Amino acid sequence: MNKSFLALALALSVIPVAARADDAAPPQLTPAQRQAMQQTFERFATQEKQLHQQMRAQILTAMTPVQRRAVAATIGDLAIEPNPDPVAAAKRLDAILSPGERQRIIAAHSAFQSQSRQLHDQMRTELTSEMPADMQSRFANHEKDEHEMAPRQLDAGTLLLRVLVPRPQMMEMGDHGHFMMHMEGAPPPR
């Protein structure tokens, strides 16, 4: 999943802390607001996961079966190395691809980033509308700082590693709710 969801979850958790510095009584979310925000997170997490699966499928189809086996072997070797070197592994992966395949992989990732950015903007808009008015301005200021970070352009080998290596389930959005449940003002756990 995208790191922006984690950043957004952390941003939401920081709002009450920032409020304490400004006010004696920080704004609190009502149970209905928490529920609405949790549902928004879950809905957008599902959409983000679908976008990621679509990108993964596009990347896999950009390679030949022989290349997919070579990628699998490289990832497997990386997993059992005593001192794994992901940079060297990414270079090896990049070298097995033709220029056209590299371009298709990078294009699939760029399309995913663009769609993901739009999805995150929609989510921010919805979440902001679900917050109390006094939280909205603090959230907007924090989001403005985060939104100004430009995405890096990665080579195809690095993208293969990032997209094809399985991630622990804890990085999925659904578990951000669990991570956030101990933070004041966070949506309730499932």
Explain this structure.
With 190 residues, the protein is mainly α. The protein has one domain (3-11, 29-180). It has eight helices and no strands. It has helices at 3-22, 31-61, 65-80, 86-95, 99-130, 133-147, 156-164, 173-180. The protein is elongated. Mean pLDDT is 76; it is low at 17-22 and 169-190.
Number of strands: 0
Mean pLDDT score: 76
End-to-end gap: 19 Å
Question: What's the number of helices?
Answer: 8
Rg from Cα: 20 Å
Secondary-structure element series? HHHHHHHH
Overall number of structural domains: 1
Structural class: mainly alpha
Strand content: under 5%
Residue runs with pLDDT of under 50 for 5 or more positions: 17-22, 169-190
- Estimate the helix proportion, in percent: over 70%
The profile of the biggest β sheet is: none
Q: What general outline do the C-alpha atoms trace?
A: elongated
Concise description?
With 190 residues, the chain is mainly α. The chain has 8 helices and no strands.
Q: What's the arrangement of secondary structure elements?
A:
Blueprint: H1 3-22, H2 31-61, H3 65-80, H4 86-95, H5 99-130, H6 133-147, H7 156-164, H8 173-180
Helix pairs in contact: 1-6, 1-8, 2-5, 3-4, 4-7, 5-7
